[in-house]
Specification:
mainly alpha
């Protein structure tokens, strides 16, 4: 019962805050609540049952409140240093920086794959998974930082419309492009996968002695057609598609899987 009362009080306080956000307001927590003020942004947040719930924008652009309710319904102050650092790191400005990194960082390695595919420096740079992993981490940061924003990457209802065959999925997708975080996530997503496939084409060319610069370039420009061009090149020179190299690792032998 105490827990329910606290929840009702929190909800009522949030409604009052929303109503008075343009004229300034005082946020009144439940009894025994300990509030600690931190400097970390323009959105006032309350930690309830260890989940961050967004409330109204604060009248002070640098004030943010935080507290935690335990299982007994008592309120305790949040460790504000961790919250401050996390919210500062997962900011909109940092998403913009990550977007630029996701855009320009891979282009350096495309040049190696296209211009000097057989050079030792290219093999050292792209022979392992380090570059691909770095691109994946940049994308993961964008996703994580976007989720931490009040609106996330995009409204889930609109995202569901993209996969609604009875509606207009294309129109829904166009509508989602108005959300910067969604654009950042999708763009880094596409660029990372393009580089992954371009690297695979390059490696297949090295293994089987196939020219790949044209296919890798097209893969960088428009994605899947680059892989199709590689298939065409393989058939044209009589190499065919690469054989499957899956092995039965669980059985401890190198038996080819059919």
């Amino acid at each position: 019962m105490r827990r329910n009362n606290c929840l009702l009080h929190l909800f009522a306080s949030a409604m009052v805050a929303l109503k008075n956000q343009r004229t300034g307001f005082a946020f009144h927590p439940p009894r025994r609540a300990t509030i600690r003020t931190v400097r970390s942004g323009s959105i006032e947040k309350t930690i309830l049952d260890r989940e961050i719930l967004p409330l109204a924008p604060s009248s002070s652009s640098s004030t943010q409140l935080g507290y935690v309710m335990d299982g007994a319904g008592d309120i305790h102050s949040l460790s504000t240093s961790t919250l401050d650092v996390a919210l500062g790191l997962l900011s909109t400005d940092n998403i913009k920086v990550a977007f630029s990194v996701a855009t320009f960082f891979p282009q350096i390695f495309w040049l190696f794959l296209i211009l000097i595919p057989k050079a030792n420096v290219t093999k050292r740079l792209m022979g392992g998974y380090e570059i691909i992993t770095l691109c994946c981490l940049v994308h993961f940061f964008i996703v994580t930082a976007s989720i931490a924003q009040p609106d996330g990457t995009a409204p889930m209802a609109e995202f569901a419309d993209v996969f609604d065959p009875s509606g207009d999925p294309q129109k829904a997708m166009v509508g989602m492009m108005q959300y910067p975080n969604f654009v950042s996530e999708e763009w880094s997503h596409v660029l990372t996968w393009d580089l992954f496939v371009g690297r695979w084409i390059w490696m297949d060319g090295l293994r089987r002695g196939i020219f790949t610069s044209h296919s890798v370039l097209l893969c960088n420009l428009i994605g899947p057609p680059g892989l199709l061009l590689h298939w065409i090149t393989c058939f044209f020179i009589g190499k065919g598609l690469p054989k499957s190299d899956w092995t039965n690792e669980e059985s401890g032998n190198e038996e080819k899987l059919k």
